[in-house]
Amino acid sequence: xxxxxxxxxxxxxxxxxxFAAEAACPCGTTAAKMSGIMEYNGAAVIAxxxxxxxxxxxxxxxxxxxxxxxxxxxKVFQMNDKVLVGLTGLATxxxxxxQKFRFRSNMYRLREERDMNPKAFANMVSSLLYESRFGPxxxxxxxxxxxxxxxxxxxxxxxxxxxxxxxxxxVAGDCTEALYGLCETLYTPQMGPDALFETLAQxxxxxxxxxCLAGWGGVVHILTPEGLTTKHLKGRMD
Length: 238
Description:
- The chain is α+β, with helices and mostly antiparallel strands.
- The protein is 40% helix and 29% strand.
- The longest helix is centred in the N-terminal third of the chain and has 23 residues, at 2-24.
């Protein structure tokens, strides 16, 4: 069938990636090889909570290890008026998961006659990832959105769907150590949309400058009760 053929092709591609990781690091552990697959294309995502608003940002680079192939890659997707999701990890799995998330979100809308709130969406993402735990998608999603009372909601998870929910900021990607340090330094609670954008932009641009696998510009999405605003950032192109 079409699904079994697609699954066979996906398993074959993952086998090739695992072989490439083993060739690059023949004496490495399983964790090291999996880390190599997670960093194969490069990504950086930050989400931050403000006062009745939330923002999520990502870099634009698409690469194959250290070789840059493009600088307009989309890594943050809007699922509905109140939910955004950022994806880091293997680019092919990012595209697959984005389609699956959108399908399940649309089916929920048809069945329930309402949109998923961010908490329900995060639980759906966690369940979907855990379903494939024996042949996981090599992605670490970050969910950002506004609840019914416009309270910010942030959730991140690993490739098996283990959730972490926070009320300040969430980072994912290759340069998490640098991003964490900048966020802890610059973040303050209850920021408005403009201050949130400035803080998030500075954290992203400074963080990706410390990592050769992410960068080449960025994009910031600010979600408020009035709607979504998207701003593009110019970064170092080297």
